[in-house]
## 1
Amino acid sequence: MLLSVFLTCFVTLVISSALLFTLGHHVRFASRLAGLILVVVVVVASGEIGAALWELPSRYVEYGEAVLLAFGILVVIVRRPWNPIGQLFFGAFLASAASYLAFAGDTTFGGGLSAIGRVASFVLLVLEVAALALATSFTFESCDAICRVRRSRRLPEPDPGHQPMVSLQIAAYNEPPDMLIDTIKSLEAIDYPRFEVVVIDNNTKDPEVWRPVEEYCRDRPNVKFVHVDDLPGFKSGALNLALGEHTDPDAEIIGIIDADYRVDPAWLRDVTGYFATPSVAYVQTPQDYREYEGDAYLEACYDAYKYFFAVTMPSRNERNSIIFAGTMGLLRRSVLEELGGWNEWCITEDSELSLRMLEAGYEGIYVPRSYGYGIMPLTFASLKSQRFRWCFGGMQILRLHWRELMPWNRDRDNHLTLAQRADYLVGNVQWMNDLVYFGFTLALLASAAVLIERGPFGLRPLYGAAVLLPSALIVTGVIRALWALRVRTGIGLRRALLAFLNWLSLSWTVALACLQGLTRSEGAFLRTPKVGERNRVLAALWSARAETLWTLALWGAAVIVLAYDKARSFVVLLFVWQGLVYASAPFMSWLNQHSELSAQLERRRRTELQRERATVAKLSVATLVAAGAAVAVAVVIGFGGSQPGKPANPFVTPERAASDQGPLNNVVQGTPAEPPSTSTTEPSSTSTTTSRSTTNTTVRRTTTSVSSSSTSSGSSSSTTSP
């Protein structure tokens, strides 16, 4: 039965994906009736296709159709604002993920595995549940941003006549003086009747860096410059100093701008009107960037950044759960002071503040128009350091606020809705996607050791046509991310692929940040290796040397198991894919070596590492425990995979009865589905530990249809990470 469910879900997922990627962004109506009709038509058609291609028994195909219809109808009912294609795809994705997890759970708890094999299988199951849960969150985001045709939230209308006093604040550290002065000049040119500019330069040691800015600001109307040494709290400390001691008493709104931005003169006049609604505590516009055009590396970074503000923020705006992003945003001063100012413990103080504002019952609004353009990190090392900091801060937010984000929390002071809790919880947990990737890396390397040393690895008996569904989950996840990026930004396929590689290139960095953020109480920063002037290839490899080692290990294992015919093609492809995740880091570093910068950007590049204020995170007991746990995962999976016991083959399918005319024909003609033939030969006990071939006609036929290597001896392990 399970094979029939898998293949019916596979066909439905393929059809719904094709519809989504070609028509999903063009269909601009929502209808429950149309959604239900589309779900029924596609599911029934998928069942017929699956039954015909693989000669599956109709009764078992109907089980798969029932699963798909249940999830599809549920999505149509719950996601009313989406168009029918988005409803169909998300329902098919959920049904496919649930079917795979049912297989993994049955393998783990259904009997046949040895005790150590059951423990190892359970570890794999935890990773698979985490991977598919995270994939579901990303899939929901994409569908919600692109397939939504009705608004769920009534946004307050801005009042053009509401023009309160605004204090625009810049926290600067080791910024090139000419660039910071350009930012101040752009703020002075803003077309707005009442505002001030407050610049806090904190802890810059070299007077030649900060004195030119001080000279420029001296005697200028509405501009204050303050230099302070030994100020704790990093950016949040500087902003608290500005708020408490240097903000005009009449200022009602606080604006935060990074030190490298050039701001549109219309920004304040267009945005401050939202604060006429008393419940609005903050308004965020996109972080945007300049001087990236024509450079492959900088374009990849730009497009990767763009995804969050083009996909994630519009989706979260519908549920009043956007984050305050730390620049090009405005805050209501009274609310900021009511909540005690900026949190100096959390190194992503901006996102943490917006969560506290929502918890207090206020609103945040996202305005999807760019009003300011800054400079991205210009080196791959600085990009990794920035991403490490963001992820570490996300883990700090989870540690600080996880209780408030739980659905059962009924604290009177906690005004978060269930949707807001889900968005902030999932949004920060999504950082752990790369930690899950690392878990699969360990699992794959452990399985490679078993395959090379002993041969079979029996924890996930996936073979033949059964590999199609997990393969489709992985492939559709990649294509969906590329599709969403292209639709929302209008870029071409080449740029979308480079942006995708840019995401992947930070996987190891984010995994490290997750481990540090979950095990350390104080802020930590990533120290990246200095490459100096050397051969570009060698510099790229050195800058991403950890990722290079993981790549070599994974691809080396793939070559060995393939050369010795120890694994099926699906497993080899998993090694290749997982290696590609880490190989993208040296590739991006190499691409960065070819960037050609203007004179001003070159001066900024030379000071980037100085601005990180990096302190190497010392090893803590908790960090060592986390590292030990990672090693234990690999050992358990390796040992359990080498001694799995005798797991049953869950994909043996009886031969289709001669009178079985297919699910739809049986219904139309009123003929009940014949019970499947009982002449099926069960796999012998040795087939689960030596050869995965089976005498069943259906499985044998589908095995040869996947690839020639599918029929090779040796068991395969499935560690999906869509």
## 2
Amino acid sequence: MEVNETQIKNRYRGLLKSCRNSVSPEDLKLIRKAYGEVVSIYDRKKSSNGEPYYIHLVNVARICAEEIGLGATSVIAALLQSTINDKVFTRQDIEREYNSSVANIVESLSKMSMIDSKNPLKQVESFRELMLALSSDARAILVKLAERLDTIRWMSNTPNEYQRKVSWESLNLYAPLAHRLGLYRVKSEMEDLAMKYTNPQDYHYIIKKLRNTATQRNRITRDFMVPIEEELRSRGFDFEIKGRPKSVYSIWKKMQKQGVAFNRVYDLFAIRVVLNTPPEREKSDCWQIYSIITESWTPNPERLRDWISVPKSNGYESLHTTVVGPEGRWVEGQIRSRRMDEIAEKGLAAHWKYKGIKQDKGLDQWVSKVREILEAPETAAEDLVEQFQLNLYKKEVFAFTPTGDLKKLPHGATVLDFAFEIHSDVGCQCVGAKINGRSVPIKHTLSNGDVVEIKTSKNQKPKDEWLKIVITGKAKAKIKQKLREEKNKALLVGKEMIFRRFKNWKVDDTEKALKILQKHLKLKNSAQLFEVISSEKVNLSDLKQVVLSGKEEQPVEHVETSKPKLAEEKEVHRPDYLIIDEKLANIDFKLAKCCKPIHGDDIFGFVTIKDGIKIHRTNCPNARLLYQKYGYRIVNAKWKEAKDQTSFQTTVRITGIDELGMVNKISEVISKDLKVNMRSFTISSQNGMFEGKIQLFVSDVKSLDMLLYKLSKIKGVQRAVRIGGH
């Protein structure tokens, strides 16, 4: 992408304009100095989208100032973020030329090397660096989020593989983190742009629907606002009202969760009332606005959300209600003060700005939990990212200790989660609880307002099944840690027992004796042998003759030692970017049943233990897990140009109004018009609506798209979509 001199100057001027009202003249000089240095250093370096690299740095700095609300220190750090990694400056150079805060942030950013989604260990270690930066200086993580936002905004001209990699990281790591830090606008834009590359068909479908319904939404918004604005003015409120549609990704999630078409998602947009009111009157004024809205429009009592009395743990404060608005449409109303709105838009940065006006323990508590999990010894690599993702997005439940201490936990948390929230030792010894005076087991799910008294026993120890009971990252980490400690103790006991017997049996070559026992008991390693011995699953006296005879039995052949090796040998001779032939029978590939890819889908290969390479769609429901836990077994794949007409099985869901002859109309379009072979067709009807599932064979994505288009044009059909892989 070519950028001319004028565009470069405009972006730089835009950065300075964003900073002018929030930084001192001295800081502005330092920003100009940093800009001059990076232009000189990176004059010839290009970003992944083809622009000069320093343009990317200017964009990131501007996002920090304009969209996140950070100050001069973060802006300078954003400009210099790559200089330590590129060995242009040292930490000492930056500290000498600027200040120690800038140096700290740049050093933290340099440690956050690009997360490699194909290597779980590197990925987790990078994520650990992200979180450690947050717990030492949160500005580093905010700059990193700004960097990721600019990357995903400008990557339309980059290779598909790069787009998928960045999108996956954005959806699974950065967007949840932005959400947790209260950066809702950043989070929503990241999700929408990631969806554009990972699921372009549904993304463009929703964008088109939003455009087509814009006039109707504007009319409903206007009709909704008129009586409320009149009443607010008559009472003398200083306010602003704005309407906005929900993000594309959140609409898509609702459609998937509720199993409905676009026009059946009722709360597509929200109306926000922002009050200019002093801090001491915020709560009472917000409730007055709520009263005005619900007097004009009928509320749904189950959809009232009060985050003013008890803010979310990321600092978010607002009063939400859903009412029946004009034309019988559901409208979400959000009521907040100007201070609350700024915190909701700019998250942590605005939270610092207003620190002291209201209680702000939530974020500090969360950062403490972050460090607690990071510092848990022997945290397994594959567990770390999962622990953070477990409750980044979840709604919260509020429960109390008998002494009145409030505990915030994710929705669905159990008594056992509550016990670990109090203290790790309390959690490890928990045997149950009394909730509101009634005895309940450890797996009991908490509700808002519960008063929880934990019952403990010194004889209680964590068990494997506890991992299925708890949902918080803290509880899972502590349980796994204790289980590992118990296992290590057992291994030491087993080792001590067998070596004592070796001494009694006068065995000199203990290494050889261990190998003989491993082969005799068909175990893979000495650790398994020690575990079996400590649990007394074998009688040591029975093993004496085996050891003393010195006869080594043939090792057991494991399935894992044959097929995987063949797969690895094949892979050595294959190019890194696999070409998948449609005639899959002749080579060691299989199409995954979970997402049923067809020719033309974006795909990747996964090296399995028994079945060679399985081909998945990039938006397969299992893709996230495979990338996260087994990234080293992912291989790139793409289709060759089709030569023969090969058929692929897929499933279509079709919904609409139940009319006479509907099955015949659908069958006619499939079999007669498009000459597509059906394998099965099931249909159910309820309350005048029908839903059908059709298994059929198509040659490629274009054929499927044509089929879906033709089906959607049948009178009475509301939506026809491919299922599987979403």
